[in-house]
Write a structure and sequence with these properties.
Structural class: alpha+beta
Helix content: 10-25%
Distance between the termini: 59 Å
CATH architecture of the domain at 496-675: 3-Layer(aba) Sandwich
């Protein structure tokens, strides 16, 4: 009997040990690149897209229809959560078809009486902006395809006239207006072709000034104002397709490089019923100025035009009368470095005032400006940067905006009174540390709230904004959280690095099974340019690539040098002006040395650095110029010579080539390639329309010239993100993994 009890007890212990071993193995499940980059195992769920309805009491969104396929458009009441089907997918089945339209995007008319559906889309450079459009009349249920006389999948930027009786759109670089009821189409421009662009933009305006939709309805619907670009002055860059045919095919791309001519751009006005276009005579050479923004002033026949000079440090603001074509300069905004364009203009008090964003007092603030531009008053006050305007509510008297004056890696909602009488008031809850985003109803009573931080995937909720109280949770990504928790990842730690004249934000991930007595290789992830920031308390997909590297036994770290896009004031951001690749590389190196002093578990003989795009450029600047620190580098889709990149971006941050050529050269990795001492791998897509493969080949040529050994990988017909075509993302990451294992472990 005693032996039986002992056997049972031993059996129970063995079972428990087996269970514990199984649980430990499961709870420490390793990351696999196939799960991250092929199987979509750790993809977050989204919600929406959401459109607040005209009454601000409810919103519409898309939900799958099991019976007919496609999506229904659903209305949810904000207060009660009750659900109404506004449009069934069955209502979106065209005559003679069996399947509903696939909704790539949709918009309501101002009175919500009609629905415009964008479908069957095609990619134009970075975004799907070309396709087909249909209109659904909500009262009659009639579904009408627009542009029946227009070539399929060529329509762009369709939008309702103010009274929703017509739709304007662009097709093959010409502008059309279509009467919805009669189907009559009026072609407003006829000179559009491959070189003359009406109603949309060339590559560089789209990429660097975020200009895509290039026409505007007048408030009364009688006129359309639009941009025209003549690209014949631009040099043509040719990409080569060698994989889709037995003969190579050149792909021409009008692309203005540093110091070269831009398109000739002008703004004109045409009657919506047709006729000749009248053009505004904006002073200055249009090849050396940018017409960066143009919009109608509400309840008027006037447009506001923002004109940036070539150096982008002066914004001249014009008001143009579309009847007389007279122009009046109301004010000029200037900066010693550069000016960013902001889409935060809202007209107030019967169009007597408008809002304007500027850094003129050293911080990014919102101002209230009189219509004649003579009187400025500050709305947001203090040593605080307005990161993003979320809602301007004139009736409630507040502007709501994202800011983070105390922790530059985080983002919170604040509000200030429009009359400027209040200090910034935080709206986001104190207990939710991380980053917040809001899609706010026009009356500021409700919002779709998204919360995330470095360990929390997006949690999306409908909230009562005035109380910041959750009404309903729309998506909590609980399943994803559980999957990631099962991986037992090493937490990303945020730290400060004092390099003497400034304290920099940084993060570090320690290897799995970390032992401070051991020595570990380190990989720095870098960007370092004004367009972005790497040190953010945000989910960022779980940063699973860097977690994967940590599971291979490496320390991973990232540092934001001065000049990166963080809310630390104008001087922080503009300090990099004229010295891209110079200041950042110096501060990255100084910060790396400081990190080595803080952590003696770092093996300073095995220091790697990697980055993409501007980060690839920064990687090589660090590797070539500071070989005593960095021993290995991996640069992806990089700029090797700043003179090869587009003029709007590079000249914005570096000034004109004729005035700063020495620093253009000094800040370019190709100038220092002969100094390479360690390991280097370079990777690029041959169809990169952004940073051309030319940059890769010129650097390769320079390295060969100086007999420098390196590794390289080209991805045929892949763009800047190197993701197109089968298995690309997985292959890219496995190639990167193999490189790091070789340089650190061989």
């Amino acid at each position: 009997m005693m032996n039986l009890k002992k056997a049972l007890r031993n059996s129970s212990v063995l079972t428990l040990l087996l269970l514990l071993t199984t649980f430990t193995t499961w709870s420490q499940k390793p990351l696999k690149l196939t799960d991250i980059y092929k199987n979509g195992t750790y993809s977050a769920k989204r919600y929406g897209p959401v459109r607040w309805m005209k009454d601000n009491k409810g919103y519409s969104t898309l939900e799958k229809n099991i019976q007919f396929g496609g999506n229904d458009i659903i209305r949810y009441e904000a207060k009660s959560g009750s659900k109404t089907v506004l449009v069934t997918s069955e209502a979106l089945i065209p005559n003679g078809e069996t399947k509903p339209l696939s909704i790539s995007n949709y918009q309501w008319s101002k009175d919500n009486s009609k629905l415009l559906v964008f479908t069957n889309t095609r990619k134009v450079w970075r975004y799907h902006t070309r396709g087909d459009y249909w209109v659904l009349d909500m009262d009659s249920g009639t579904l009408t395809q627009l542009g029946k006389d227009v070539e399929r999948t060529t329509m762009m930027f369709a939008k309702f006239s103010p009274d929703a009786s017509r739709v304007g759109y662009v097709s093959k670089n010409n502008i059309y207006v279509e009467d919805i009821k009669s189907g009559e189409i009026t072609q407003l421009t006829s000179d559009g072709n491959e070189a003359i662009i009406n109603g949309t933009f060339d590559w560089v305006y789209e990429e660097e000034l975020s200009c895509r939709d290039g026409f505007r309805w007048s408030p009364d619907g009688s006129q359309i104002a639009y941009w025209q670009s003549d690209t014949r002055a631009i040099g043509t860059f040719y990409m080569i397709n060698n994989v889709d045919s037995i003969y190579s095919k050149p792909i021409p791309l009008p692309y203005p490089k540093v110091g070269t001519d831009n398109s000739l751009v002008k703004v004109g006005v045409v009657n919506a019923t047709g006729g000749n276009t009248k053009w505004f005579d904006v002073p200055g050479d249009s090849r050396n100025n940018y017409l960066a923004r143009m919009n109608f002033i509400p309840n008027s026949n006037e447009v506001m035009i923002q004109q940036l000079n070539r150096k982008q440090n002066t914004n001249t603001v014009w008001v143009g009368n579309t009847k007389t074509m007279a122009l009046n300069n109301i004010f000029i905004d200037k900066d010693e470095a550069w000016l960013d364009i902001h889409d935060n203009i809202m007209w107030l008090e019967d169009e007597k005032y408008f809002t304007w964003t500027s850094e003129k007092d050293g911080w990014l603030h919102l101002y209230k400006v009189s219509r004649d531009g003579k009187n400025f008053s500050t709305i947001t006050k203090g040593n605080i940067d307005v990161v993003r305007i979320n809602c301007i509510d004139p009736k409630g008297g507040y502007v709501y905006y994202i800011a983070s004056p105390e922790n530059f890696t985080q983002r919170y909602l604040y509000r200030s009174k429009i009359d400027g009488s209040s200090a910034p008031e935080r709206v986001s809850p104190q207990e939710q540390s991380g980053q917040h985003a809001y899609q706010i109803s026009a009356d500021a009573k409700y919002a779709i709230h998204t919360f995330q931080n470095v360990s929390t995937p997006n949690k999306i909720s409908l909230i009562n904004l005035q109380k910041h109280k959750t009404i309903s949770v729309l998506e909590d990504n609980k399943e994803l959280s559980e999957k990631v928790s099962a991986l037992s990842l090493t937490p990303k730690e945020f730290i400060k690095l004092d390099i003497g004249d400034v304290v920099l934000d940084a993060w570090i991930i320690k290897p799995k099974n970390f032992n401070p007595a051991n020595k570990y290789p380190i990989v720095f992830y870098v960007y370092g340019e004004p367009a972005g920031s790497t040190v953010q308390d945000a989910w960022q997909g779980g940063d699973l690539w860097h977690q994967f590297l940590a599971q291979q036994g490496y320390v991973v770290a990232s540092i934001d040098n001065k000049g990166t896009r963080t809310p630390r004031g104008r001087d922080w951001r503009k300090s990099i002006y004229g010295q891209i690749g110079i200041l950042a590389a110096h501060e990255q190196a100084a910060a790396a040395k400081q990190l080595f002093k803080m952590y003696d578990f770092i093996d300073t003989d095995k220091v790697g650095i990697w980055g993409w795009s501007g980060g690839g450029q920064m990687t090589m600047n660090c590797l070539f110029r500071y070989p005593d620190i960095y021993k290995s580098g991996l640069a992806v889709s990089f700029v090797s010579d700043q003179r090869l990149y587009d003029n709007i971006y590079q000249e914005r941050y570096m000034g004109l080539l004729t005035e700063n050529e020495a620093n253009y050269i000094a800040g370019s990795p190709i100038s220092h390639a002969k100094k390479l001492e360690g390991n280097l791998m370079i990777m690029h897509g041959t169809a990169d329309d952004n940073v051309h493969y030319q940059s890769f080949e010129r650097l390769t040529n320079e390295l060969i010239k100086h007999n420098k050994m390196f590794d390289m990988m080209s991805y045929p017909m892949r763009s800047h993100g190197i993701w197109e075509r089968e298995n690309t993302s997985l292959h890219l990451r496995e190639t990167m993994e193999r490189y790091w294992k070789r340089v650190f472990e061989d």
